[in-house]
Amino acid sequence: MRNGFLMAIAAVAGVGCIGGGDGKSEGEEIFCDGELPDVLVDDPDAEVDYVINCAFPVSADQTLTIKPGVTIHFGEGGGIYVDGGVLDAPGTAEAPITLAATDAAVGWIGVRIFGDQTSTLENVNISGAGLETPEGAASLIVGTVVYAQGSASIRDCVLEAGFAEGLHLYGQLPKFTGNQITGHAVPVVVTDESIDQMTLDNDLKGNDTDAVEIIPQPIPPTKDQTWPLIPVPYWIRASLTFDGEQTVSAGNSLHLQDRASIITHAPIRMEGTQAAPIIIDGATHTSGDWNSVYLTGGKSSFSYVEFRNGSGTDDIFGQAGMLIIDSNAGGTVEIRDCVFDGGEAWGVWIGLPDSYNEDIESVNTFGNNAEGAVHYPE
Prior knowledge:
Elements: E1 16-19, E2 25-30, E3 39-40, E4 50-52, E5 55-59, E6 63-66, E7 71-74, E8 79-83, E9 86-90, E10 97-101, E11 110-114, E12 118-122, E13 124-127, E14 138-142, E15 151-155, E16 158-160, E17 165-169, E18 176-177, E19 179-182, E20 188-191, E21 202-203, E22 212-215, E23 225-227, E24 234-236, E25 240-242, E26 246-248, E27 253-256, E28 262-264, E29 268-271, E30 278-282, E31 293-295, E32 301-303, E33 305-308, E34 321-325, E35 334-336, E36 339-341, E37 346-350, E38 365-367, E39 372-375
Parallel strand pairs: 2-4, 3-6, 4-7, 5-8, 6-9, 7-10, 8-11, 9-12, 10-13, 11-14, 12-15, 13-16, 14-17, 15-18, 16-19, 17-20, 19-21, 20-22, 22-24, 23-26, 24-27, 25-28, 26-29, 27-30, 28-31, 29-32, 30-33, 31-34, 32-35, 33-36, 34-37, 36-38, 37-39
Antiparallel strand pairs: 1-2
């Protein structure tokens, strides 16, 4: 991952062709303050079809179609901004679409998709992107932090050699399969209300940190959602709070750090299996690396979940356990076939009588928790 900063985006007038030393056209330069094409086509005699050094806008009621085989090079101020319109980029395996930096050492902005229309990217190769803009720093951004509006179907694409994040998702992904995201700081960043858009069928390896990072929105999400099984861990560096029911699929790993917690005001269900447990651990696998899963409402359940290296000393409301059942939790929390190991305080902290299965200590495994296995209400 390389660090880059966006310089001023300059728009200039005119259209021109750049010639190559071998007599081949190196691409038509597109400027962003005049009449813009709505279809970009492949020139079989050109190594590069288009050069864009500005923020190409696709506004509401507009569609930009990029035909299979098109190659576009972008300068430092170059990018594609879909703001209410549609980007239709249906490349094929035989004729992929290539969006790349004119100078790989300098980079370009990337693709930004905002609004309630769904754009399509298939067999699109994006490289050398991710320079910082007010919307963030990523090769591809879908949605905005304020309104979470943005939708894109992304299939069989490659995002590589980026300057920051690969995909930053605030919105929706009707399709997200067969993609490879490599050579970034982190392949995917999602908000806490877009977790359910992830899928297993993507290659997210070869980045500085191979994980899907979850970041909190200003207002806790109220929708019910399932955390799908993904090929890399979920990464949580800031505490997440949920007002909607959460279900974590078997086989997932959650890596928390910087004293982060998962706080729920609704039921949460983490039900792994013996063959595919759910693992909650510190990102550095160090005792006290994270705080707790903190339950404040609803009937939750945990089975075949491994809690490791949590219950940091920055306790929530004076309670210190990797799993905390608050006095306002309501309903019985079922905890079976789980492991609580390496906690800096208690394995489980219970704040309310009759809120847990009474055989909690006999049907779960506890070890190496500094304060002990279970703290019971006084």
